[in-house]
Design goal:
This protein is of the alpha/beta class and 402 residues long. The chain contains 14 helices and 14 strands. It is globular and about 75 Å long.
Amino acid sequence: MAKEQEHPAGRNWRPETALVHGGITRSQWNETAEALYLTQGFVYNTAEQAEARFKQEDPGFQYTRFGNPTTAMFEERLKIFEGAEECLATATGMAAVTASILSYVRTGDHIVAARAMFGSCRNVIETICGRLGVTSTLVDGKDLNAWREAIRPNTKMFFFETPSNPNLELVDIEGVCKIAREKGIVSIVDNVYATPLLQRPLALGADVVVYSATKHIDGQGRCLGGAVLGKTEFITKYVQEWLRQTGPSIAPFNAWVLLKSLETMPVRIRAACASAAKIADLLAGLPGVTRVIYPGRADHPQAELAARQMPGGGQMIAFEVEGGKNGAFRCLNALRLIILSNNLGDTKSIVTHPATTTHFKLTPAQRDELGISDGMIRLSVGLEAAEDLADDLTNAVKAARG
């Protein structure tokens, strides 16, 4: 019989401790590493117990689409670390975004969202919600007045990511969530870029925070996953029922991988952030680089806000090279160490050309509005030696100039 380990001080642990010990449930064998339960279903001792499980009067498991001991450990650990009342894991980050939005809004509702966001998130809000009769308004997320002015009588939700993908634009979490709270509007923050180590949206007033655990939480390019965290009322009333009935459930194996990844996340993130700060300074001084965007630099347009809500610049950098798309492609093709992919948050450093990949569905005018130029490159800094990354980028930028 599995039993939950008692950790009365769990909520007071420092991050490193919570991410190693939080949420552990051991079987009768008292294993040191968390157990992986690869099972579809669970056996009931009696018909009465089965009935109680389905009525949610008995705390046990029914079916892995609804819940699983390994998944529960991942959810509990992330919940303790984030300081949330509840957490539910999903198959992917976009499943987390979609569940948090579509489980709550109804036909006739209205969403206000920051226009600087990941392309798939924008598609959910503008296209998928639009098909369901939910309207939306995209605003300049930096402008608090824009959020206020966009509110309608039927506005039910604010959604934004900060820093944004790929241009690292920031939103004042506390300021925007205060506006939402005053109007009875649910606020959802996509915190994937900053990670829970560098930004705590719930502590700053957000109702819900979502993650693509595929990124920094796994951090090693191995599996997909997502998570939705927030108050019990929202998670159990809306998100839980949505996940149960529509089925974007995380696989137990993926939950186990992510659970173990949480143990090393502080070490990985801090090392990558330290390298990213050095690389951002290097890029700023290279001939052929026309712009560097990094929240940890004093020349970031929102440096004061970054310092206020993020204790570090993160591991993501955006920079622009001369020559537009051709210059950017020459730079990307000249890299020998840094890999070209559309993922981020890996131990390996990764570059992407947003205008032709993650944001290619936007019109040129929409990309211009967001500051996504043809010469922009998104860089996710990994765990390689910063000196080797610097050499690779220096050579690539030089090649970009022709």
